[in-house]
Each structure stands twice: as structure tokens, then as C-alpha cells.
Amino acid sequence: MNFVAIIQNAYQALRQNTRRSILTMIGIIIGISSVITILSLGRGFESYTVKNLTVSDENNVTVDVSFYPTDYEQFDSGKMRYFSDEDLTFAAQVAGVEAVKYVNEDDNYESITFQVRDTKYNKSLGFVSFDDEKVSLGRKISREENDSHQKVALISRDTAEDLNPTVEKVLGTGIEIEGEFYQIVGIFENDSANLFSMVPDIKIPKKSYRYYTNDGDNPMQIRLSVAGDFKPSAVANKVIKKLTKVGSSRNFGEYMTFDMSELTDGIGKVLKTLTYFISGVAGISLFIAGVGVMNMMYTSVSERTQEIGVRRSVGAKRSDIRNQFLAEGLMLTISSGVIGYIIGYLIALVISTTLPFKVAPDLFTISLTLVITIVIGLVFSITPANMAARKDLVEILR
Predict the structure, then answer these.
(1) Domain final residue, candidates 175, 191, 213
(2) End-to-end alpha-carbon separation of the chain, Å?
(3) Quick check: 344 and 33 in contact, CB under 8 A?
(4) For residue 59, is it within any domain?
(5) Among 213, 245, 280, where does a domain finish?
(6) Which one, of 314, 179, 182, 229, lies nearest residue 171 by Cα?
(7) What are phi and psi of 134, to 5 degrees?
(8) Residue 363 falls within a domain, yes or no?
(9) Are strands 152-156 and 180-188 parallel, antiparallel or unpaired?
């Protein structure tokens, strides 16, 4: 019997018992859709987490190099610099380094404690970004205010609610930051769309902070922008090796780096393992559904004993009978798998609308669905199919 005839006969056999076929398919559909939903969300969250933990600059990856002095007092007092401009030039000469900058040129966050009335608050302090700063109440801080060292501040909505449940009343009031009073002129929304956002609670002009605290720029880190075809950790180690030889502070401490890629790889593996474990637990339902397939196939073999005898009497081989029932089992499980995949993906897609990451179909989940359904179809149909093929023709026709 050719392949097309086997498929046609399998389809007709399943249609003759539509209700039984649908009930059997439901178990597989539920199992597959559960696994696909969990896998899609898990892989989406894994990609989102790794992406947000990896600092990137356009198409390049960045890595930080820090200097740890043996005597911090000399550096914190401003007598010595952690890194000089010449150090940045040396770092830029290393192969694979696209650009070098001081880490706190654009961002710098620190924890501060301030008091309003009799209550103390611990918040993070950062500097205003003039290009993309957004406020929901009040106004932005201008570059002119930064240049003229104006003592103005933006605070997050959460911080404003801590100060006064009616956030509008916070505007125009002042907070003390390291002995200086800054007037609150605007309130910005907390970045809830990014689970790993590093947005400070309070933002003030950088020049104002430097001016009133006498804290000159003396960053203890530099950031390397590494070309995409170079390994960041290898490039950073070469920079450290060079600075250890010619760096301006080489005799007063040690240059070190932290490889973020190792951390993201580790987190990615943990998330992947967790996703697979949960998917495996959900996949237990597939085993139960497989037993349902086997039960249906045994029932079908018992009900079609006369059909098997007639086909054998007109020349059908044992292999034809076996292949016929295997085809029915595979058609049942594969079609269930396709439906389960679509339902599972749609569920994940709907859930992702409430999350900060998106899900997308990928070759892995599609291939996994196909493999699982084929395995279930073969494993749970092979025994009933062999039983049908081994039926004794004389006993059937007696």
C-alpha cells in the first residue's frame, strides 16, 4: 500500500470516530499548549534579561575597567586621579577597542539620605539627562540652570508620594542634599517597563552638584566600547596589562575588570534550566494524553477486527496493517500538536502584552512540538499497531 493510500485510509478511520478522536486530541492539545506557553514566555524573559544586563553601545559591547588604589585618601582628596586622559589614549590603542570614556561622564548614581520634617529617606541620586528627560508634572531642568549651578531637582513619582500623597503639593518644596537645599521643579514617572532600569530617585544638574560639594570629576572606572568581533574580556585584559605597564596610577594600586558576559551567561543558563524544568512538569500531561492515545488505538483495533481480516484475505501484508494504525496515531498526535502550538503561542502572546518583553515563534519550539508529537504517536501507537498486524487470519474469519 502506497503512502497516499495509507494517509487517506487513516483520515477516514479517524473521521468515523470523530467524537472519540476529538476527546483524545484535547489531552495532547492541552499538554502541548502548556509547554509552548511556558517555553515562549521563558525564552522571551531569558532574552530580555540577558539583553538588559549586557551594556551595549550601538553594535558594540562595553566593558568597564576599574582602578583600586592601596590608599584611597590620596585619590578621594583630589590630589591624584584614578585615570588620566593619557590612560584613555593608551587604552584606545589596544586592538578591538572602538572607543574609551570615563564612566561618570554620562551617568553616576549614589545613595543619599535626606530628611523632610521628622522623617528620613534613603534614595538614589543621579544627574539630569537633558536630551531625553521627561516629566509628568512640573517642568524640566534646562542646560542654562546646569551651567549656572542652579539648585533645582527632579524627583520620581514614588519619591513624591513618600513626601506627600498629593504629589502636586511637592512641587516648589525643597530637599536637602549634602547640606544644600534643592527646589523640586518636576516629577518624572518610575520606569516600570524595564525590570533592570537604573533610574535614580532624584535627579539634579551635574555641574550644580560638583560646584556645591566640591567634588571634581575623578572617576575610578573607564568604559571600553569593544568591536563586535572581539571578546570583551580578552580586550579588557589586554588593556589592564598595558595600563599595568604604563598607566599613570600603576604604582599606587591595581587595575581590574568585571566580565559582565560571564554573569549574563550564568543567568541565562539558570533561566533556561528553570524554563525547561517547569516545561517538563507541564509535559507530564503529555504522558497521560499518550496513554489516552494508546487506549483509543486498542479500542479501534478491537472494533475493526473484521476489517483487518477482510484486508488480510485480499492480500494486505502484516506491515500494511501495522503502518495503517501507526499512521492513524501519528495523524492524531501531529494534528493535535499543531493546534496546541498555535493555542500555546497565542496565550503567550496575550500574556506578553502585560509584560516588558515580547514573544516570537522560533525554530526551536516548532521543532520541539513536531518531535514530541511524533514520539508520542510512535510510542503509544506501536503496540496496538503490532497487535493488529499479528492477528491470526484464521481466527479472525472463523
Answers:
(1) 213
(2) 26
(3) yes
(4) no
(5) 213
(6) 182
(7) -125, 140
(8) yes
(9) parallel
Q: CA separation (Å) from 203 to 111, 161, 162, 165?
A: 12, 16, 16, 20
Is 337:370 a contact under the CB 8 Å cutoff? yes
* 41 and 119 co-located in one domain: no
Exposure string for 139-176, b = 16+ CB within 10 A, e = fewer? ebbeeebbeeebbbbbbbbebbebbeeebeebbeeebe
Q: What pLDDT, in 10s, does the model give residues 239-248?
A: 999 999 999 8
* Cα 95 from Cα 87, distance rounded (Å): 15
For residue 355, what is its C-alpha cell?
509584560
Domain count, the chain: 2
Distance CA 253, CA 221 (A): 13
Greatest Cα pair distance in the chain: 107
Place of cell 492480500: 315
**Long-range CB contact pairs, 177-183, < 8 A, 24+:** 177/112, 177/114, 177/125, 177/153, 177/202, 177/204, 177/209, 178/112, 178/212, 178/213, 179/212, 180/151, 180/212, 180/213, 181/151, 182/151, 182/152, 182/153, 182/208, 183/151, 183/152, 183/153
Taking residues 152-167, what's their average pLDDT? 90
pLDDT at 81 exceeding the cut of 90: no
Nearest to 322 by CA among 389, 369, 277: 389
Residues 271 and 387 both lie in one domain: yes
Q: Can you tell me the distance from the alpha carbon of 390 to that of 306, in angstroms, rounded to the nearest whole number? A: 14
Is the domain of 388 the same as that of 294? yes
What gap in Å lies between CA 17 and CA 94, rounded to an integer? 72
3-state secondary structure of 222: strand
Computed from CA positions of residues 17, 20, 26, 27, in that sequence, does the dihedral angle turn out positive or negative?
negative
Contact (Cβ atoms closer than 8 angstroms) between residue 150 and residue 208: yes
Do 293 and 388 belong together in one domain?
A: yes
Q: Nearest-CA neighbor of 187 among 203, 199, 174?
A: 203
Eight-class DSSP state of 253: E
Q: Which of the listed ranges 7-21, 71-85, 116-130 does the model predict with the highest average pLDDT?
A: 7-21
pLDDT band at 106 (very low <50, low <70, confident <90, very high): very low
Q: Which domain holds residue 19?
A: 3-52+266-397
Same domain for 153 and 48, yes or no, is no
Q: How far apart are CA 67 and CA 245, in angstroms?
A: 14
Q: Convert the pLDDT of each residue in 43-57 to its tens digit.
A: 888 888 777 665 555
